[in-house]
Amino acid sequence: MKIRIYLILALAGFSLSASCSYLDQVPEDELTLEMVFNDKTRTEDWLAGIYAGIADPYWDYMNKAGYDTLGDDMTLPAAWTTFDWTVLHMVAGNWSPATEWKMYYWSELPKYIRSAYIFLDHVKPLPQDGVTASEVALMKNEARFMIAYYYWLLIETYGPIPFSPGLVDAGASNEELLIGQTPFDTIVDWIDKELTEAAKGLPAYYTNNNKFGRATSVMCHAVRARMLLFAASDLVNGNPDYAGHVNKKGEALFSTQHDPSKWTKAAEACRELIELAEGNGYRLYTELTADGKIDPFLSYQNMMFTRWTDGNKEILFARPGGCNIWDYEKHATPRGSGGNGGLGVSQSLVDAFFMKNGLPIDDPASGYSDVGYSTASDRRNTEWIEGSPTETPGEITTAGTYNMYCNREARFYVTVLYNDAWFRESNRRTEFHNPDMDGGGYNSPQAGYLLRKKVHPDHNELNDNYIYRPGILYRLGEAYLNYAEALNECDPGNADILFYLNKIRERAGIPTYGPGPDQIAVDASDQIAMRKLIRMERRVELCVEGVRYNDLRRWKEAGNVLNGPVYGMNVNATTKDGYFRRTLLDYKHVYRKAFYFMPVPSWEMDKNPNLVQNPYWSTQE
C-alpha cells in the first residue's frame, strides 16, 4: 500500500539539501514513500532534510535560541525587542509558558525525529543506482544519531519530555499519541545507549570532503560526553528543588538522590571521546610563529574560521551547510562603519580574561590596573595585526591605551572590541564615546564593548565582504575542559586534570599550572580550588559559543550570577576620559528558579491533558 505524505511536513527542513530540483518533477502537492525511497536522489535529500533541525551557532545562538544572550557573556540593547529579539524579553524576566521561544523545539524537533524514523523504516539498497547495503547501513546510523541528538536537545531544554521512541502510526489513538513525560534519567540512559550503538557503524571522519557535517562516531561520542556531564551536574543530579515533581502517573521526573557515579560515567565518556578523536587525527588547532612557537592570537582567532579541509582538526561537530554570518557580523560592526553596532560584550566577560602572566585580574600579583593609560606599546611574538594602526605584526596595544585593556591574554583581544581600539576594517579607532560615530542610541555597545570573536578580520560591512567559516557546535577544546571538570568531581588530584587544563592554557599563550619555575602554583588535590580554576577557564575559552548559559544552568549558578548588578563603561559620557569609568548600568537581567528549564508551551498543555508543567512555572517562582 502506498502511504501518501505531504512534502511540507515529511520533507521538512530541506533548506540544507544540496539540490531539491527534483521537486519540480513530481505531482503538485504530494509524493509517496515508495517514490521517495526508490530514488537515490530523493532518498539522499530526505536524509539531508533530517539534519535541518541543527541550530546555527552564529545567529540562532544570539537571537532565536539566545544561548549566548541569555547568559552573562553579552549585554544587548533592550530596544532591540522591537526588532524581533524575543530573547531579550526573556533576559528581562518577562516570559511565561505562553511566550514563543523562537527555536520551537517542543513542536519542531519531534517532526525531524519522526522523519528520521520514517527513513529508518523505508531506506533500502538501490543496486541500479549504486546504493549498496553498506551505504544504507551507514545512512541508518546517521539517522539514529540525529534522533538521539534531537532527543538530547529536547531534554537539555525542557527536562523530562513525552518519550516514545519509534515510529507511531499517524492513525494512532489519542491514548497512544497524548502521553505524559518520562523521567529524565530514563531518557538519558536511552540516548546514551543509542549514541554508543550508532557510533559503531559510523566513521570517525569522512575522506569525502563533501560529507563534512554528516554524522560520525566522534560526533556521537561528543554529544554523549556533553550530555553525561550535564546529567552528572547539580541541576539534575540530586536537586532537592525538584522533589515532588511527578508526572500524571505519580513517577518522579527527576532523581533527588545525588549519585556520585554519574560523574565517573561522565569522566569515562569524556576520556573515550578524547581517545577516539586523538586516535583519528583530531587535535587542537594551532598556528605557529616564525620561530616555531604557538601563536596564541592567530590560533584562537582562526580556530573559528579555518575549515576542516584546511587543517582545522579541532572540529568535532559542525553544522552542515552555512550559517547566518551576515546578521552576526553586521550587528557586531560599529555603527560608524556601516553596522548595527550593538552586539555587545559584558563587563563581566571582560573581567574574566586573564592577564598575559596567566593570573586573574583580582590577583594582587597580576599587575592589573583600571586607572590611567599606558605609556608604551605592547609587542609580542605573534603575526596578529589587528591591534596595530600600521599593521605591524605583534603590536597588541599602542601607547595611550586605557590600562584596563593592557597586558591582557591573547583571547581577550581576539574576543573584545573596546573603545579607542584600532579597527582595521575601517582603518580607524573605535569611538563608542562619540554619539556621532559609534556610540549613543540602541545601535551601540550597551556596556562599552562590541564582540570581536567569530567576526572575520577581513570582513567589511561597507562592501558586503563575508567569508565562509564552519559552524562549530562541539570542538576538542571543550572536550578537554569537560574531562578536567568531570575528573575533578570524581577523582580529585588525578594528574589528567592539570594535563588537559594546561593544554588549553598553553594554546592560549599563558603560563600553565604546576610546580615548575615558569608555572603558576596550585594545589591540584584541592577539589574546590580546582573547580574554580576549571570554571574560570571554561568562561574564557568557550565564551560566545553557546556553552556558558547551559554551564550556569547545570551548576545551579544561573540564579546567583544572572540576578546580580550589571556593570560596564560610562556609556553616557561623550569624552574618552569620562567613558573609561566602571559604571553600574541600568540593565535589567532577571533569572527566577523556574527558568532553569524552558516551560512546556501553554498551547501544548492545552492539547495534552497528560502533561505536567515544569517546576515553578505555575507559581512564577
UniProtKB/TrEMBL annotation:
Transmembrane spans: none
GO CC terms, sorted: cell outer membrane
Keyword terms: Cell outer membrane, Membrane, Signal
Compartments in which it is found: Cell outer membrane
Protein's UniProt keywords contain Signal: yes
Keyword Membrane carried by entry: yes
First-listed, main subcellular location of the protein, grouped into a coarse class: membrane
Occurrences of domain SusD-like N-terminal (ranges): 22-228
Residue ranges constituting the RagB/SusD domain according to the UniProt record: 319-617
Signal peptide positions on this chain: 1-20
Protein family per UniProt: Belongs to the SusD family.
Stated name of the protein: Starch-binding associating with outer membrane
Organism whose genome encodes this protein: Alistipes timonensis JC136
